[in-house]
Specification:
- The chain is built from 9 helices and 22 strands.
- The chain is α/β, with parallel strands linked by helices.
- It folds into 2 domains: 109 residues, Golgi alpha-mannosidase II (Immunoglobulin-like, Sandwich); 299 residues, Glycosidases (TIM Barrel, Alpha-Beta Barrel).
- Strands 10-9-8-5-4-14-13-12-11 form a 9-stranded parallel sheet, covered by helices on one side. Strands 3-15-16-17-22-19-20 form a 7-stranded antiparallel sheet. It has a 4-stranded mixed sheet with strand order 1-2-18-21, with no helix packed on it.
- Strand 4, helix 1 and strand 5 form a beta-alpha-beta unit.
- 43% of the residues are buried.
């Protein structure tokens, strides 16, 4: 076991129980698949622009391998003709950086039903638009998503039409390009009634993946239970081997008046909280082995500190790092030179640890999701670990121990490799 429980004691500085645990670098792990070994190839970020070289450079440096962005139907098509010039420009900019794109094929068209398709003719027009996009970008580093949050009336006023729209679109796309990587539209949350109806209809059987947007008020560690329920639903509907993509998910630095920060989402404490949740989101999705994980989003969409939608960015509007971006860069920097070996087994509720291996050292990433309990980690004097905080900054170890609090986010424990630590 990685941890050996010793005792519970009261924290000296705050009224939170502390549990002692002993670190064991030889702990048994639940091994990760070879496909899950690396983080960056599966990690993308949402953008809301077609031209910004500085922002794309920052996304590349942060470890993102692709972006997700809108390719709006109404902007592309005019009276049956398609103008790809603005989107080709972004594609070239991404390719120059060795990056790809997930094109979001969405939103209504004034010539085809308005805010969403209304008739079979409108659905056929949408399918032609989607197939035209797939054909245009065939053979490049691209993925596609059919509509945005189709269970939400904000984006699809009549969600009941989605199975017909999905089926018709996939049929035409597969006729044009059988190898295209195309997901269903990511649902707003795990809307199981909507997902069940869509899957039961058979409309998703030609999709490359089923997409979800797992937004929630709770921590990201509550997601695996929902993901397991979705996988069971997919298996029941003959999609056992179809992957799940998370095509959009993030945490805003402003969560509403109850957050209690005078400066809203621009306060230091609020932005630190966002960083903690985003880092844990990345780690949780990685441990699930998901092939596509898209963070929402690269840059703040507005300047109002009290507007939730304005504060999802990893960057400020001026493209400077928020703490969340620093946390992502710390994680991808470690992940770049290490291989995800597995998740540590038999940990107490609230405590998480994964193991990353490299030729010269081993890194354990530890985090706590229980705000009502702190963990005091005791290291053997023989371990001589070096520890970094959520931002990759060195932190001290006093008496071979370190307290791990929920609001500290993940910590990185680096150990020099010995013959006994080889896996």
């Amino acid at each position: 076991m990685l941890w050996l429980a010793a005792a519970d004691q009261q924290a000296k500085t705050q009224n939170v129980p502390v549990r002692d645990f002993r670190f064991d670098k030889e702990a048994a792990i639940a091994g990760a698949s070879k496909e899950a070994a690396k983080l960056s190839p599966r990690l993308g970020v949402n953008i809301h622009f077609l031209k910004d070289d500085r922002a794309l450079d920052l996304a590349k440096v942060a470890g993102f391998s692709f972006v997700r962005t809108d390719l709006p139907w109404a902007r592309l098509e005019k009276q049956g003709s398609y103008d790809f010039a603005p989107f080709d420009g972004l594609m070239r900019s991404l390719e120059a950086r060795g990056m790809g794109v997930l094109w979001l094929l969405a939103y209504g068209h004034p010539e085809h039903g308005g805010k969403s398709p209304q008739s079979s003719e409108d659905i056929e027009a949408y399918a032609r638009y989607a197939a035209a996009v797939v054909t245009h970008f065939r053979g490049r580093n691209v993925r596609f998503e059919i509509w945005n949050e189709p269970n939400a009336k904000e984006f699809l006023p009549n969600p009941a039409i989605y199975p017909d729209l999905l089926r018709a679109t996939l049929e035409l796309i597969r006729h044009k390009d059988p190898t295209a990587m195309v997901s269903t539209g990511g649902t707003s949350g795990f809307d199981f009634p909507f997902l069940a109806a869509m899957l039961k209809s058979g409309a998703a059987r030609k999709a490359s993946a089923v997409a979800v947007h797992p937004y929630r008020d709770s921590g990201p560690e509550t997601t695996p239970a929902d993901m397991e329920r979705l996988r069971q639903l997919m298996q029941h509907n003959s999609l056992k081997n179809t992957p799940v993509w998370v095509t959009e998910w993030g945490y805003s630095s402003y969560d509403g008046p109850s957050q209690g920060f005078a400066d809203g989402g621009h306060s230091e404490a609020a932005r630190k909280r966002q960083a903690v949740l985003v880092a844990r989101e990345c780690l949780t999705m990685w441990t699930l082995g998901l092939p596509v994980i898209v963070l929402y989003d690269l840059r703040d969409d507005g300047a109002n500190p009290f507007n939730r939608e304005h504060n999802f960015g990893l960057l400020n509007q001026g493209n400077s790092d928020k703490p969340a971006m620093k946390a992502v860069k710390a994680l991808t920097s470690v992940a770049r030179d290490h291989t995800f070996s597995g998740t540590v087994r038999r940990l107490p509720h609230g405590l998480h640890a994964i193991r990353l291996d490299a030729a010269e050292d081993v890194v354990f990433i530890l985090w706590n999701d229980d705000a009502q309990l702190n963990f005091q980690i005791h290291f053997s004097p023989d371990d001589s670990p070096s520890i970094c905080n959520i931002f990759g900054e060195p932190i001290a170890i006093e008496g071979n121990e370190r307290v791990l609090e929920e609001d500290a986010g993940p910590i990185y424990v680096r150990l020099k490799r010995t013959s006994s630590s080889v896996r």
